[in-house]
């Protein structure tokens, strides 16, 4: 069999495979009729959780949606995303409520008080139908450390406006929180530059 005949056979097989796939995807799209506000969780040890969340904020702004951001834990240093989204004060309400990483603060009582203040800000957004999308950055870490009551957080999330989307980031998402989420993605770590002694870079980690 000549290479050309091989190519023709592979092309026909590929076309049939894609036709079958399109038919299956079209059926799923046809059956997906519900429209509601989603809870999305981005967790795991890999890099990219907050980056993904802020990518969705950028996407939402493209659709003229009103967004809110509450960053827990972070706060000791300015980040690129904070500087960028501060350019859009009418479209994005941005709050940095943390005091820095817990291994730096070394103050559990103070960290709990900071988390509670941050949740008051988050709760006010969750109760406001003007917000189309809210990012609760590093909330999973706060919950894993039991700085906030998990049942209270879940109740506030479930009491939000019907069409409001919420994105929650951070390692170690609690199973109970995962249970109420609509979409959950886990970032797995394969390798990281930090393991080679390379410091955090502007535009990459900061």
Write up this protein.
By secondary structure, the protein is an alpha/beta fold. It has one domain (38-196): P-loop containing nucleotide triphosphate hydrolases (Rossmann fold). It is 45% helix and 14% strand. The chain is built from eight helices and six strands, in the order αβαβαβααβααβαβ. The chain has helices at residues 3-31, 49-62, 80-85, 102-105, 108-126, 139-144, 150-158, 175-180, and strands at 39-43, 67-71, 92-96, 133-137, 165-169, 183-186. Strands 3-2-4-5-1-6 form a six-stranded parallel β-sheet, with helices on both faces.
| Approximate shape | globular
| Whole-angstrom Rg | 21 Å
Q: How many strands in all?
A: 6
Given the helix and strand composition, which structural class is it?
alpha/beta
The percent of residues in helical segments reads: 40-55%
- CATH topology title: Rossmann fold
Which range does the strand content fall in? 5-15%
Per DSSP, the total helix count is: 8
Main beta-sheet strand count, sense and barrel state: 6 strands, parallel
CATH class: Alpha Beta
Nearest-integer average pLDDT: 89
Q: Identify the strand order in the major beta sheet.
A: 3-2-4-5-1-6
The low-confidence runs, each spanning 5 or more residues with pLDDT under 50, are none
Find the CATH superfamily: P-loop containing nucleotide triphosphate hydrolases
